[in-house]
Amino acid sequence: MIDVRRGIDRYPGGDPDSGITTRHAFSFGRFYDPDNLRFGPVLACNEEHLAPGAGFEEHPHSHTEIVTWVVGGELTHKGSTGEATEVRPGDVQHFGAGSGARHVERNDGTSPLCFVQTWLAPLEPGGEPSYRLVRGLPDGTPYEVPAAGARLHVRRPAAGEHIPVPAAPRVYLHVVRGDLRLDGAELGPGDSARITGEEGLEAVAGSPGELLIWELPA
């Protein structure tokens, strides 16, 4: 089964007056949709746009694995686990909230910041908070999120390239850049597909692009 969701249908959020614009793929905050709460362990996939000087001041999380992919600009992150980092395009940031942690996310640069952030439910709640930053994740190199039983594949296909879709119980595919064809459907930036129980599936890039492909448990 392939369930295509369009970027234009995402729930609007953030605080535009403060320089924050968010597009939510799942039920979030004041946009409650009981039919769109999660997909496997995926609780949220947010597209965040922060103007220079804007950001999310210190706030708490718990029982959530938060993975951030910067599309453009530079994200300043400070967490209660002691880290203070700048996250750039090509980096993967993984903030495991465990039984409770706090962090700050800001655009302290002079250029607009855009990032995609995925929240995943852990297999077991609780535990110690954790932080990891991988600089320059190579194309096709998976990033493991064992606490959620998930694996992230970042692909940057050339035009015409075929991208195999993992034969996992569930797969969540998000288009960052470019356009592609998936089982007859055309997808563009911001679009996503929720894939269940498919084998031998391929996406075909219509232009150079960038994809986030989550391999998920049942």
Description:
InterPro entries: Pirin, Pirin_N_dom, Quercetinase_C, RmlC-like_jellyroll, RmlC_Cupin_sf. It comes from Streptomyces toxytricini. With 218 residues, the chain is mostly beta strands. The chain has strands at residues 2-5, 11-15, 20-24, 42-50, 55-61, 65-72, 75-79, 84-87, 92-96, 101-106, 113-120, 130-134, 143-145, 150-155, 162-164, 170-177, 180-182, 185-187, 192-196, 202-205, 210-216. Helices cover 0% and strands 52% of the residues. The strands form four sheets. It has a seven-stranded antiparallel β-sheet, with no helix packed on it. A six-stranded antiparallel β-sheet has the order 1-19-16-21-14-13, with no helix packed on it. A hairpin with a 4-residue loop joins strand 2 and strand 3. The mean pLDDT is 96.
Radius of gyration (CA) equals 16 Å
Strand content: over 45%
Shape: globular
Structural class: mainly beta
Strand order of the largest sheet: 2-3-4-11-6-9-12
- The end-to-end distance, rounded to whole angstroms, is 13 Å
Helix fraction?
under 10%
Q: Are there runs of 5+ residues with pLDDT below 50, and where? A: none
Q: How many helical elements?
A: 0
**Topology order in helix (H) and strand (E) letters:** EEEEEEEEEEEEEEEEEEEEE
Chain-averaged pLDDT: 96
Q: How is the biggest beta sheet arranged? A: 7 strands, antiparallel
Number of strand segments:
21
Note the topology:
Elements: E1 2-5, E2 11-15, E3 20-24, E4 42-50, E5 55-61, E6 65-72, E7 75-79, E8 84-87, E9 92-96, E10 101-106, E11 113-120, E12 130-134, E13 143-145, E14 150-155, E15 162-164, E16 170-177, E17 180-182, E18 185-187, E19 192-196, E20 202-205, E21 210-216
Family: Belongs to the pirin family.
Protein name: Pirin family protein
Domain Pirin N-terminal: 19-120
